[in-house]
Structures are given as C-alpha cells and as structure tokens.
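Dear H.,

Thanks for agreeing to be a second pair of eyes. The structure we're designing against is below in token form, covering all 273 positions.
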C-alpha cells in the first residue's frame, strides 16, 4: 500500500487529477492533502468535494480552511480569496464549513508526521499550538519571537515532517531540509507546479501548473462585491490573546478575593470591638 501526500492544491482540480494519474495509485492506496486545498484556484468546490466523498482520503486543516471556519463563527472576517470561494460554493457553503470544521490538525503516520504549517521545537506533538500547526500569522509570530533561525532548522521530531503552506524553494521544486523536513507547496495556483510525495518510498511526484490561476481570478473578481455576514467580532483573535485574557481574568479574581477577604476581616474586627 502506498500513501500520496499532496502539497497545497488551492482549487487546482485539473492538476490534482493529473498528479493522481502520474502517481499511479491503485485501489487501496491512500491520498492525504497537507491542507489549503481551498481558495485562489478555479475549482475549490470540486477539490473539497473529492475529500468529502472519496474513500481512503484525508485532508489536514490548513490556515485557509481554518479561516473559513473561524469566519463562519464570526470570529474573523473573510479575506478576498475566501469570499470568492464562498461565491464558488454557492448553496453548498454551509456543508463545506461543517466539513472543514472537523478537519484534524495533524496526521501521525508510521513513516512521517504530516501538518500544514510549522512545528515548534522542544515540544511534544500533544503540546503544539493549533496556530503553529496550521501556519497562521499568529503561529509564525510566535515562532519568530522565540527563535532566531527558521523553524525547520530546529525540527527535533522523531519522524520526518511533511508540510505545505510556504514555497520555501520559491521554485517548482519541493523543499527538502536534511531529509527531515519536506516542504510540498510549490505554488501550483500561481503557475509553478503541484507536488506530492509517495510513502513509504519518499518518492517525489510533480505536475506543472496550467496557469497563474490566482492572477486570473483576482482580475475576474476585481469588481465583485461579496457581502459578508454580520460579524459579532471582527477583531482577529489569536491564542496569545486568549492566554492574555485568561491571565487578566485570573488576576481580577485574585484581586476580588483579596478585597472580599479584607472586608470580611474588617467586619469581624468591628463586631469583636
């Protein structure tokens, strides 16, 4: 049995099908997307539908899927690429949101670990932040504040790590760091290539992109007005914000308890006197 791990598809359904053909998969083989299968490309609904309906397939949550989910909960506003995807989905958008909301943050395979974004060194998988694994701006900021080197140079996991999110080579070729970190995003949606990696052989499979789809779609939708649902909270809310809020609540409770204790002691003293 083989497993094909595919880099960021971003709605490039035709290239995705071409990659599957080139990989020569057989019945029983598995297909895994590292995430960001949606947005920017010509057929996001078809790509997501593939992972909703086909057997032996799995999609990891990327930052683009996470953005859709959080916007659906009115925690953030949709970016332009997500607004266009919502138009593409039409009436199927609520079902797409429900599916994306259940996606896993990682997949621990016998041969490798698969996440979309980053991995913080010196922490076990169980303690990794969702923002780091998904590759959000908050996760990137967190790692930059802690380390003065690229995160992949510090990767200390027990298995090779397969990721997407960034085209680290800035070419149509995958990024491989010391056979420990494999970056599979090769910018198919902007005209380079779609790349996959076959396990357990770690063989690279790639097909060229047919166009710079994101440039075309931006131009097509340059005048499109995409109404947004009313947001209860339009401020970006990160895990760091959550931690600061919990700390503030804890300090407030401590101060309230101290004041209450002081009042009780003063009242007791008055009664005694």
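And this is the sequence the design step returned. I haven't edited it by hand at all.
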């Amino acid at each position: 049995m083989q497993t094909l791990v595919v880099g960021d598809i971003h709605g490039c359904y035709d290239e995705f099908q071409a990659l599957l053909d080139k990989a020569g998969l057989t019945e029983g083989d598995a297909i895994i997307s590292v995430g960001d299968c949606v947005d920017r490309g010509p057929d996001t609904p078809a790509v997501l539908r593939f992972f909703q309906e086909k057997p032996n397939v799995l999609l990891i949550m990327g930052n683009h899927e996470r953005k859709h989910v959080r916007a659906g909960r009115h925690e953030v506003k949709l970016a332009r690429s997500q607004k266009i995807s919502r138009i593409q989905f039409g009436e199927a958008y609520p079902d797409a949101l429900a599916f994306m909301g259940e996606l896993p943050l990682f997949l621990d395979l016998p041969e490798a670990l698969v996440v979309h974004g980053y991995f913080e060194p010196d922490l076990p998988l169980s303690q990794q932040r969702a923002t780091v694994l998904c590759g959000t701006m908050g996760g990137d900021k967190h790692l930059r504040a802690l380390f003065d080197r690229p995160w992949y140079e510090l990767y200390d996991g027990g298995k090779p790590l397969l990721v997407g999110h960034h085209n680290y080579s800035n070419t149509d070729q995958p990024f491989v760091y010391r056979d420990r970190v494999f970056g599979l995003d090769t910018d198919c949606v902007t005209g380079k290539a779609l790349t996959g990696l076959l396990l357990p052989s770690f063989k690279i499979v790639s097909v060229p992109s047919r166009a710079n789809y994101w440039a075309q779609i931006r131009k097509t939708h340059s005048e499109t007005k995409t109404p947004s649902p009313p947001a209860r909270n339009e401020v970006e809310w990160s895990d760091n914000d959550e931690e600061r809020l919990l700390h503030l609540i804890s300090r407030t409770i401590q101060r309230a308890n101290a004041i209450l204790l002081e009042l009780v002691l003063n009242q007791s003293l008055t009664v005694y006197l």
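Two observations from my side: The two ends are 84 Å apart (CA to CA). Confidence is low (pLDDT under 50) at residues 228-239, 269-273.

Warmly,
E.
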